Amino acid sequence: MWYAKNVQTVASELDVDLETGLSQKEVEKRLDFYGANEFKEYKKPTLMKLFFDQINSLLIYILLVSAFIFFIVGEISDAIIILVVILVNACIGVIQESKAEQALEELKKIATPKAVVKREGIIKEVPSQQIVPGDIVIVDAGRYIPADLRLIEAVNLKIEESSLTGESVPVEKDATTLDQGGIPLAEQRNIAFMSTLATYGRGVGIVVNTGMNTEIGKIASMLEISKDTTPLQKKLTELGKTLGIGSIIVSAVIFFIGFFQGRDVLDMFLISVSLAVAAIPEGLPAIVTIVLALGVERMIKRRAVVRKLPAVETLGSVSIICSDKTGTLTQNKMTVTKIYTGDQIFPLSSPVLEEPIYARIFEAISLCNDAVITKHETTGDPTEIALLEAAKKLGYDKQILDQQYKRVFEIAFDSERKMMTTVHQNNDRYLVMIKGALESILPLTSYVMKNGENIRCESKMIEKINEQANKMADEALRVLAVAFKEVDCETMFTPDKLEKDLIFLGLVGMIDPPRDEVKQSIAQCKNAGIKTIMITGDNQKTAFAIAKELGIAKEQPETLSGSELDRLSDTELREKVKFTTVFARVSPEHKVRIVKAFKANGHIVAMTGDGVNDAPSLKQADVGVAMGKNGTDVAKMAADIILTDDNFATIVSAVEEGRNIYQNIKKSIIFLLSSNIGGIVLLFVAIFLGWPAPLSAIHFLWINLLTDTLPAIALGLDPNDPDIMKQKPRSIKETIFAGGSGAFTLLYGVLIGLLSLFAFVAGLDAYTGSQSIFTIDFKNVDKDALIHAQTMAFITLSLSRLFHSFNLRHKKKALTEIGLFSNKFLLLAVIIGIAIQVILVNVPVLNKIFEIHYLTAIDWIFAITLSIVPIIFSELEKAWKRVFVIN
Ligand code: ATP
């Protein structure tokens, strides 16, 4: 019952010095003893389970039944081959699955929250798993509580405990000891529970339990990275079903045609099974999974961590990126450059320091400040760090000031109020220090400090202050107003009493330069049909000045402020957003309306966010993007993607990667489908014409599951198309058959099928001794000649499909332009495919098992010549497109 023990008892029981925290050595010892601060891993699927998952599909059952029937009718070698192919394919599937699993594991590591601890007297951020009992943890708004904590300090701390108690209204916490036992979790006010969320204020606590020993550890399971299926995967499952049903229908049709032609029933059954095998792209789901997983890995390298798989696809369709300004478009390295007070602006480098008013400003910005600058480390909000650094430069040391004027009360900054207030003991009185946006502070101001005196703030003065603020903002400076007042009793410590009748001290202007790479990324977005929108809590003029510099906005009317936005109805806003590129002085709530308006106009919106209140807009956006460095845990958990460098340019890279991943998956799918159509055409036409079957089930299985699989995966790994960001975003409604892909699939399927059929007929002609292909007696083909001709068809079908994979690399560019060697995996896959076929045909045992025939050099040349026809055809088609088709 930690809540019933006082702070000293807790500290001594856990053997920790409250001033310095644990030593690193002690942490390591405890880590060994207590284990990492995490929940027990959910059971990873065993290899055996993964293997059986692979086999657990309708198609495999059909194949097993077929193998059984082959076995019964004495076709032992066919039965064995089917089993071997199922086995090999399942093994490939297991390897792919575990690779995908591994990639997702990595993601989980990156996405776990960090915690701020005090160890050896130093405040630092560590991964939450490394927290041990006895650690001193600092919590602030937006952070998840990393372990069960007994609070030793709480300032306006509010924690949302819904994950534990189901109660979604945040509860207020304090550090007072509760003097009775048996208090339910929801009422343990001095305990902060693991996985709950600090929504307001800040606090400090001692870790009392970690990992499985925490309250949530006892009841909950790990927050897992979502493995939702992507829209494409869903569509593919649908397509798989359609193909399955389609192939059964076509198989039945073939069966009956054969039956009425008077063929052997068993023969016809086997041919029908062959057709079903030929029609279904068995490897497709596994290939899509692996390409997605590898794509996600590539994105991590480009500093974008995908939390929700479907986002990878949606990224490719993004047409609007709404980005925060501070830190994402700018460097978040703020430096105070100008101060306005006592009627003049002066640069920080040469301030006029005689008047008491200057001293008060620097005291205020040091005291009303939560940043920490030590020899070792600088932590805190960049705005506050900049203020501290400026004060320090002029000889104001926060540590000394903090001792002199002890902080006794505070109202934390939040982006809704856009200001922060602290109260400090000053002998028997209290100093109230306030800093924030000018719009927030000016209405609360009654006096202005001038020549050491407080004079009434009149409208003329207000005009002047605004004028000076605008001047600074026009120079792209972020402007903060500073004010103070004095009160003499604690009963005044409420927001409405503290934050009124303020004495205005001055303005601080700080520069936050744009990130170097962002301008280029914005231009790149423009080329790619993506509009960049700036959303910021900052002043309208500052925002516009930076937006102009970055190429986001051209004219001032393109900006809209939060208060203007409030006056618009949803319909009006829909119209307004068409011409707005900068939203300034907006609060997180506005962001939701902005996203909705863009979405209502048919856009696919990516939205960035970092704050506690950004979660709703991140969820509302099609792709929610959170900041990995400066973002709160809430924002990260609500996002689809986390940027590990908080950089706008990374979003653009992620969009590019998303487009490429989609394009590559599409290549794999179209490749497999067109190849399979080739098989269907070959078999269907032959049976329809009353000819013997050109291939048997095992031949189709072999090609579908082995020789086709490698090029399909290799296509999924095709290097990024450098022109992908010159295209418009893909419509979210677009199917994989859009843009001529349906026709392409059919055309090449038919071509490959007919070429293989031609090889078959030519084989029959050569080895039945007929006069010409027109005089072949299909009804009485001798077995040896048939096997020979089937081998010709088998080789032509497999090689033409292998070569056809090159056709999918680009819609328009010639192979010479893309570079034959630029996808080494594909080249290797094709070489392996060819090698397998050569071995099969030339090794006597194999060729007996597979019922194929040794081929002569002429046969090989003939088959290869036919197999490269699709490439020649495709190169001609692309050349034609390059000349005559603009898009
Ligand atoms: P963005 O939304 O682009 O990240 P931002 O960081 O300027 O912009 P907020 O952090 O919401 O947005 O800040 C809004 C305004 O609040 C700022 O323009 C500034 O005037 C004021 N402000 C920011 N930080 C502080 C702070 N620590 N204390 C007091 N006022 C602050």
TrEMBL record:
Protein name: P-type Ca(2+) transporter
Source organism: Calidifontibacillus erzurumensis
Cellular component terms per the entry's GO annotation: plasma membrane
Main location: membrane
Protein EC: 7.2.2.10
Catalysed reaction equations from the record: Ca(2+)(in) + ATP + H2O = Ca(2+)(out) + ADP + phosphate + H(+)
GO molecular function: ATP binding; ATP hydrolysis activity; metal ion binding; P-type calcium transporter activity
Family as reported in the entry's similarity comment: Belongs to the cation transport ATPase (P-type) (TC 3.A.3) family. Type IIA subfamily.
PROSITE patterns: ATPASE_E1_E2
